[in-house]
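Exam revision sheet. Question 4 asks you to relate a sequence to its structure. Input first:
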Amino acid sequence: MTKDSLKKIKKLSIFAVAMITISSVDSIRNLPGSAQLGTKAVFYFVIAAIFYFLPVALVCAELSTTYPQKGGVYLWGKKTLGRQFGFISLWFQLAENLVYYPPLIVFIIATGLFPFSQKLADSSILMFVMINVIFWGITIVNMFGLKASAFFAEVFGILGAIIPMLLICVIGIYWYISPDKANCINITWDNILPDYHHLNIGITFTAVILSLTGMEIATVYANEVKNPQKSYPIALGIATVFILTTLIIASLGIATVIGPNNSTLNEGIMQFFSSFMTRVNIPWMIPVIALCIVCGGLASLNNWVLAPLKGMNVASSDGFLPKFFDKENKYAAPVPLLIMQGVIVTLLSLVFVFIPSVNEGMWFLNILMTQLYMIMYVCIFISFFASRLLDKNVHRPFKVPGGILGMCAVTVFGIFSSFFTILMSFAPAKSLGIQNCYLFGLALICGLIIFILPAIIGIRYQAKLPSRIRHKSMKKNRKKEH
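Answer key, structure tokens:
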């Protein structure tokens, strides 16, 4: 693409980039988990923002503008430390998405069923069946390409995500300041600071981190804003303030109305709305709210089903998967990869068959997803640091401020916070009622090992390819990138 062609492309406004970032990250699904922290959620969100969220946002913005070609996290790793490191980064991005889908669909199902039958939402067998019906339905939609996927997201996105989030914030504030309402929490400075004598909050802290993930998807638009070095930090600042404010207020709002100990992952949001709507005598609004949230959940699911596979399709062209997975249909959808993804999600949904408690099954998958996500972010920070050291002459439209000190600070903060989150996620909260914490932790370790193995297999498969075939695949992939 020529420079003249690039100039003709309409650049996004600061507000547009901020809204894209907000819609990619700000989500109500993880609020019930962070609400279990009560008033301490304020402290943990602020700490997570400083040591995790801002470093991730800045690093992803620099990498996405420095290497704007197709490939995402795979390309970042490939350009800095080689194809094998790129594949490792990409695999963990795909792996966390695979684990993300079942609990998200359970949340959607539980929300839709709440106004009619709360008992059905506790049925593990029903959840297993509905997970597969919904996910395979979304998979078929994405087989018709990005246009069908984008239309689906546009129709349901704002209705079921941003509006309910703002509504939760408004209700929470109204409830707390109303003198005739019984508040379940008391927001004081002493209550905001954590109690270091109790180490049973690790599992709920993962919900705080999980609420701030997804920035690597949003930052691909950093190169589309005019004067990114100046404008993107402004857009990022607007998005960061909005995301943190809404997440903190909404988490406190849920804890205020129903209490920290009554917030379950699958039904916490609807418990909040049901409690409020019933007390103000408008129970007819409960099904309406549920329908909006279901639509938003489906839009969120749809947004993620295809995006990571696009990167895996690029890696497949580099020889990390059999040639069969490199195929696309006439809508440019990677059908073999979509089918493989569906099969893996079906296997993961068996967790709800073998774990009798739906809420406990959701916690298990959420924690495993967070651990896989953190490994991916470690790879991203390593790619960033390597890029600065090994690729000094490349043009960087956006650069993390602060020079060498800024580079080292965001790398150290990011890697430390990622490993700290993994460590904290092995400490189950008492509120889950887990009978055998050691067995729970062992299951998590086994889950990590299972998802690490495909990365090793992919690297070995690519290394064993005859050099002639490997170079041919790489040449084909270079054409795709451009």
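Marking note for examiners. The chain has a mean pLDDT of 78.
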